[in-house]
Amino acid sequence: MAHQADALPWKDFASIFDFAYRSKRHHGETNLFARQRTSVQVRQLYSFVSAFVRILEEHTDKEMSMYVDVEQDDEVISESTARNIQHLVQPTNPVFSVEGRKISFWTDRVGTANSREDKTGTFTALLLQDEMDALFSIRAEPPIQLCLKRGRCSHSCTKFGLPELVDTAMMAYICLNMLFQKTELHDAETRANYIQSGKSGDSLIMDENVLDYRSTRGYQKMLFECTQSKTICGAVIHTIPHRQFYGYQDCSYTTEEEFGFLTLPALISRFTRGIYQPDSHDVAIVIYILQQMGLPTELILIILELAEYAPKGSIPIPHDPLHKKNLPELQKYLDYCWQLLVRTNMLVKYRDNDWEGRVLECIWKLFGVEHPRHFLRSRANRP
Question: Which domain of life is it from (predicted)?
């Protein structure tokens, strides 16, 4: 089941799109493509976007009601909070010093590039770890005006990596929930029945190796964006939860033009560099073999640790997040992505944040729906 299936119209939203393999209309690209535009489909898209933003605001208000204003202290980050994020930031981060935990560190705009990157890293780590009290204290200072705008904006605008964090969390959330609705692209039994029925009418996709969500441009782009090692803000801390889920630490060189054209083996190779990655089943087999050789369990675990023989991500079946055996971890991951959006909205609440436009832009990036600039012009004439 998709995340928040009872609140968000995922099925209606997914019904707007069809899978096309090496689409001639789209220069040979494989992806989910919007059907011919009709008033019903436009209404379904508007309905999804509106529901997404409405539920986000409702969850934000509910979470904010749990927090009360506290008296502002010079030390906005406690020592225990700093310890809670130490696994996410560099050991040299100022947050581990008394001065780095004071509000003066955050309001100083004359700092070096390194100090700005340290602030971005610390702020992102606090958000990832749900340290909202510290974040509210930082946000409360007048010089700090948080915003989600990309690129250059006013001198008073402070981003701390929020645009990148929101973009990746939203992209993963929408992409995986959407693809989950297309069961013929990830469930073996449904795929076999789909092929046998000949529903697509396209002989090219009457092959189980072709009918796969991982061949779509949307999935490949999302995977790269969520795990890339270079970002506009410099820091990559916001990609850590995504890397931990997928089990990918970095991606070799990939261009935008390749998304939707990479085969599954080629896609996996970009992230693993051809190095074998065991899954939980492989680990169990090795443990069994070593036990049959008479080795004690304690020694076996030491051997596996030294050999780094373990699944790289949190999902039991690697390279296939929508596999049915991965569903428990998938639900945790989607819930976490949603919580990141809620936490961010708590921090930028009452700012000029165009969440509708952001959701539309995300859908456009993933599945090529009409460019947001064109789509937004018609908002005043909603069906």
Answer: Eukaryota
- Which pLDDT value is given to residue 381? 46
The token duo for 21 is: 């393999």
Nearest C-alpha neighbor of 264 from the set 54, 26, 15, 21? 21
Distance CA 282, CA 279 (A): 5
Greatest distance between any 2 Cα atoms in the chain: 74
Each residue of 138-183: pLDDT tens digit? 888 766 778 777 766 555 567 888 999 999 999 999 999 999 999 9
Q: Give domain limits for the chain.
A: 10-67+163-276+314-381
**Which amino acid appears at position 208 of this protein?**
E
What pTM did the predictor assign? Answer: 0.88
What is the percentage of the chain residues whose pLDDT exceeds 70?
Answer: 84
Q: Would you state the torsion angle of the CA atoms of residues 96, 101, 107, 113, taken in this order, to the nearest 10 degrees?
A: 0
Q: Any bridge partners for residue 18, and if so which?
A: 33
One-letter amino acid for residue 106 of the chain? W
